[in-house]
Amino acid sequence: MDEIIEKIDDPDLKEEIKKIIPFHGYLSTGAFIGLQMLNLARRLLDIKDGDRIFVTCETRNCLPDTFQILCGSTIGNKGLNIINHGKMAVTINKAAPPGEKTVQAVRIVLDPEKTIKYPIFHAWYMNEAKISHEDAINELIKADDDMYSWYLRYHRT
């Protein structure tokens, strides 16, 4: 895994990975997917460091840990909700400004129609073959945001 992390040029991404590993126990494919989804949401919603965000994860597996450690969004502080549909999908929104009744949110999904372009990763995602976390994460790094679909919507506060 160290070899893959060393190939990453973005120092911020490396720092985020260093925070995830001790919390999650290792860098899992699901935790890395969560990291990519978080960074995509940051760009789409203009999320800045220190912004309070609310996250709904559609799986219990690995994905929620990224948001707990990097954003402080937990079940206890009501920043994290888990609805276990078994999907690699999240909905993220910033806290609404005072007096606002709606806020823009983004739902991001790991899209199997898009993962097909990455056969190694697709085999992992569809559980068709035993693929190591290293190989799956390497594919995710190559793909960047290409495996995700997302749409913006308004969310009631």
Structure description:
- The chain is an alpha+beta fold.
- It has a single domain (2-156), classed as 2-Layer Sandwich (60s Ribosomal Protein L30, Chain: A), CATH 3.30.1330.
- It contains seven helices and five strands; from the N terminus they run αααβαβββαααβ.
- It has a five-stranded mixed β-sheet.
- Strand 1 (53-57), helix 4 and strand 2 form a beta-alpha-beta unit.
Task: Using brief descriptors, characterize the structure shown.
157 residues, 7 helices, alpha+beta, 5-stranded mixed β-sheet
Instruction: Indicate the structural class.
Output: alpha+beta
Spans where pLDDT lies below 50 across 5 or more residues: none
Number of E-state strands: 5
**String of helices and strands:** HHHEHEEEHHHE
Task: Round the Cα radius of gyration to an integer and report it.
Answer: 15 Å
Shape: globular
Please name the CATH topology: 60s Ribosomal Protein L30, Chain: A
- Main sheet attributes: strand count, strand direction, barrel closure: 5 strands, mixed
Q: What is the CATH C level class, in words?
A: Alpha Beta
Distance between the termini: 40 Å
Give the integer mean of the pLDDT values: 94
> How many individual domains?
1
**CATH architecture field:** 2-Layer Sandwich
Q: How do the strands line up in the largest sheet? A: 2-1-3-4-5
Specify the helix fraction band: 40-55%
User: What's the number of helices?
Assistant: 7
